[in-house]
Write a structure and sequence with these properties.
Layout: H1 3-6, E1 11-13, E2 19-21, H2 46-90, H3 92-97, H4 110-119, H5 128-134, E3 139-144, H6 150-156, E4 168-173, H7 176-193, E5 198-200, E6 205-207, E7 213-218, E8 235-238, H8 248-254, E9 267-272, H9 279-287, E10 296-297, E11 303-309, H10 315-318, H11 322-328, H12 332-338, H13 356-359, E12 360-361, E13 371-377, E14 383-391, E15 398-407, H14 411-421, E16 431-433, H15 448-454, E17 459-461, H16 466-477, E18 487-490, H17 494-502, H18 520-530, H19 538-547
Bound molecules: adenosine-5'-triphosphate and magnesium ion.
Adenosine-5'-triphosphate binds next to helix 6 and helix 10.
């Protein structure tokens, strides 16, 4: 007799119908299915088993196929997104619809969005950044608050035509270190947008697979533009255009804007924060003529637009809040310029007390007996400036009654021009001239000073103390008890008036004006005032005129 027949309670049947021993009445733990068993307690026919196995394989393969289909769908979608982005960058979509549409990424389910996002190289921030990249005007300024995403857009914009072999773009800033930041960003962005593009550090030049080129350059001085002489560009962008003191470089480079490819539309693009040495001309050119975001025709015939930027427009910085906090801590004027993008606040003007109603007057006939004096600042590539003043005998007010402001003058031309302009003065007007004009270093012929003196002008060396000179101008602008300032300017002197109104303070030395701003008429006035013009009684004056000899190099004294 079998053991299970003797102790039936200690045994149970397993799936195969075998008796297995229960321990303490508890069935033994099953140790897995015996080989070949279906787990259903009976053996299948080998044909059925093969059927079951085959079905399993089919199910597994069907599952894999479904997974592959979803994956394919995802890839298709992300390919669409990438194509969309590429179109945007190339501007094809912008051209077709006049406006860049936003990508479809936001419409995708969350899981797919992550996949798609990874394939997006660049997506413009909604609002001004998008408008800037889609603008069809030839010349556009994207300007305003700091951190709005202006420079980033400046890097992306020239990519519009990077698929065309004839495309030549030039991105400019004032100095090399400032340019570095842009170059570094381009190295992150360009290879992703156009795989295969190569950067050459020495030339600061990107070469694209199509043959297109994007070059980086800096313009520290006006003369730096001559590096681009004879070149042609289909896209020129100035990042921080207000760092250019005058419109000279913009005008020069605009003449280089052309292309041989009819598919490429040539563009000029600028970005800026309000303020800075060139704020005056930038505001006049882009902001004053028309409301923001409205296209207009400039006096040069170019279609133009100003697109204002705000920090909130750039979620990459705005969301952080720290950047905004930093801007809020700035002094009021800079805060309004950099946080609010306000172009109207006095752009760090050095002479805030200058008032058109008080300091500018209609011309009148200068009485013949009033003393006259002139100040000259010489320049060839930049302007030569000369301002003539007469001293009102009643209250010593200095009246600036004439100005000369012209570039490209040789010393002989200047001597001639001044002589011609003085024909109406009772006698040759004595004056002071920039000390550099007496400097012999590296010069073979006569100095500018010598040439002017030889032509009959009575000139002395100017006192060039910049800080003292600025203080004196403040002193002269101050309104006296009589209600009249010590300095008044004929409204026929627009250059001197403009410089006094707009010349900014030097950011690193508020005791002085920013020497990058146009300051030739200002310098001429400063020299004039520093010569301490005053009225003497006629007798002293006559004696002085006798004593007052032409400047001799050994004479180091200033003033009367
Ligand atoms: N569309 C975008 N996609 C991704 N990042 C962006 C985008 N726009 C801006 N950024 C990020 O925001 C940062 C600040 O933008 P950017 O330097 O262009 O601002 P800005 O307006 O030129 O500032 P500033 O006035 O200080 O020169 C950039 O470095 C970049 O990382
Ligand atoms: Mg910038």
């Amino acid at each position: 007799m079998n053991d299970w027949e003797e102790n039936p309670d200690a045994y149970m049947r397993n799936d195969n119908g075998d008796f297995i021993l229960k321990k303490d009445g508890t069935p033994r733990k099953k140790t897995g299915r015996p080989k070949g068993s279906t787990g259903r307690g009976y053996n299948y026919h080998s044909k059925t088993k093969a059927q079951i196995d085959a079905r399993k394989v089919v199910r597994k393969k069907e599952k894999r196929l479904a997974q592959a289909r979803t994956k394919l769908e995802n890839y298709k979608r992300s390919l669409d997104t990438s194509k969309n982005t590429l179109n945007k960058i190339e501007g094809t979509e912008a051209k077709a619809e006049g406006k860049i549409t936003t990508t479809k990424v936001d419409d995708l389910p969350k899981a797919l969005r992550t996949v798609a996002e990874e394939n997006v190289i660049f997506r413009p921030n909604e609002g001004p950044q998008t408008d800037f990249l889609a603008a069809s005007e030839t010349d556009v300024l994207y300007g305003g608050a700091a951190g709005g995403g202006k420079s980033y857009a400046m890097l992306v914009d020239p990519l519009r035509f990077a698929h065309r072999g004839a495309h030549r773009a030039l991105i400019l800033r004032r100095s090399m270190p400032e340019l570095r930041e842009l170059i570094d960003k381009s190295r992150e962005l360009y290879p992703k947008a156009f795989p295969g593009c190569k950067y050459k550090e020495v030339e600061k030049l990107w070469n694209f697979p199509s043959g297109a080129k994007i070059e980086f350059g800096f313009l520290e001085r006006d003369a730096d533009v001559y590096r681009y002489q004879g070149q042609a560009y289909s896209w020129i962008g100035f990042d921080e255009i207000t760092h250019q003191a005058t419109e000279f470089s913009w005008n020069y480079l605009a003449s280089r804007l052309r292309t041989t490819d009819p598919e490429i539309i040539p563009y000029m693009r600028c970005t800026a924060n309000p303020g800075g040495v060139g704020a005056h001309w930038v505001k006049k050119r882009y902001i004053d003529p028309s409301p923001p975001n409205e296209s207009f025709k400039g006096s040069d015939g170019l279609s133009r637009k100003f697109i204002p930027a705000r920090l909130d427009d750039n979620p990459y910085l705005a969301n952080d809040g720290r950047y905004e906090q930093m801007l809020k801590a700035l002094p009021p004027t800079q805060r309004r310029q950099l946080l609010e993008g306000d172009w109207e606040v006095a752009e760090g003007a050095a002479f805030t007390e200058f008032d058109r109603n008080i300091h500018i007057i209609d011309p009148f006939e200068i009485p013949i007996h009033w003393d006259r004096i002139k100040g000259i600042d010489y320049g060839y590539a930049s302007e030569s400036a000369c301002v003539w003043g007469a001293i009102d005998r009643d209250d010593n007010t200095l009246i600036i009654y004439r100005e000369l402001y012209r570039k490209g003058l040789l010393a002989t031309d200047l001597a001639q021009l001044i002589a011609e302009m003085e024909l109406n003065d009772p006698m040759s007007v004595p004056g002071v001239l920039d000390t550099a004009c007496w400097n012999r270093t590296g010069q073979t012929g006569p100095t500018v000073g010598e040439t002017l003196v030889k032509a009959g002008h009575k000139l002395r060396r100017a006192d060039k103390n910049r800080v003292a000179g600025k203080i004196q101008i403040h002193e002269y602008l101050k309104v006296q008890q009589s209600g009249r300032p010590k300095l008044q300017i004929f409204n026929t002197c627009p250059n001197l008036i403009r410089e006094l109104q707009s010349i900014p303070l030097d950011k690193s030395n508020p005791e002085d004006v920013d020497t990058h701003a146009p300051d030739h008429a200002y310098d001429a006035l400063r020299y004039l005032i520093m010569s301490r013009p005053r009225i003497d009684d006629t007798f002293t004056r006559m004696r002085q005129l006798h004593r007052e000899t032409i400047y001799q190099p050994s004479d180091g004294t200033f003033g009367y």
